[in-house]
From TrEMBL:
<keyword id="KW-0810">Translation regulation</keyword>
<dbReference type="GO" id="GO:0005829">
    <property type="term" value="C:cytosol"/>
</dbReference>
<keyword id="KW-0963">Cytoplasm</keyword>
<comment type="function">
    <text>A translational regulator that binds mRNA to regulate translation initiation and/or mRNA stability. Usually binds in the 5'-UTR at or near the Shine-Dalgarno sequence preventing ribosome-binding, thus repressing translation. Its main target seems to be the major flagellin gene, while its function is anatagonized by FliW.</text>
</comment>
<dbReference type="GO" id="GO:0048027">
    <property type="term" value="F:mRNA 5'-UTR binding"/>
</dbReference>
<dbReference type="Pfam" id="PF02599">
    <property type="entry name" value="CsrA"/>
</dbReference>
<dbReference type="GO" id="GO:0006402">
    <property type="term" value="P:mRNA catabolic process"/>
</dbReference>
<dbReference type="GO" id="GO:0006109">
    <property type="term" value="P:regulation of carbohydrate metabolic process"/>
</dbReference>
<dbReference type="InterPro" id="IPR036107">
    <property type="entry name" value="CsrA_sf"/>
</dbReference>
<comment type="similarity">
    <text>Belongs to the CsrA/RsmA family.</text>
</comment>
<keyword id="KW-0678">Repressor</keyword>
<dbReference type="GO" id="GO:0044781">
    <property type="term" value="P:bacterial-type flagellum organization"/>
</dbReference>
<comment type="subunit">
    <text>Homodimer; the beta-strands of each monomer intercalate to form a hydrophobic core, while the alpha-helices form wings that extend away from the core.</text>
</comment>
<keyword id="KW-0694">RNA-binding</keyword>
<dbReference type="GO" id="GO:1902208">
    <property type="term" value="P:regulation of bacterial-type flagellum assembly"/>
</dbReference>
<dbReference type="GO" id="GO:0045947">
    <property type="term" value="P:negative regulation of translational initiation"/>
</dbReference>
<dbReference type="InterPro" id="IPR003751">
    <property type="entry name" value="CsrA"/>
</dbReference>
Amino acid sequence: MLVLTRKVDESIILGKNIEVKVLGIDEGKIKIGISAPKDVEIYRKEIYLEIQEENKEASTHKQNIDQLKDLFKK
């Protein structure tokens, strides 16, 4: 893990076209802004993990439905 120190209005660049900028610091919270192309998906980590779990569950349900369909074909 790369650890950087940034002050308000300072940025880091990821790749060639993603900028992460510190917008403010207040009461222990850091406000950041992210500039990226529209095709780059950006999620808070907890939301990303929820999406991954839901996709995993949906995949399992699809497999179960496919198995049921196969049973009725016989």
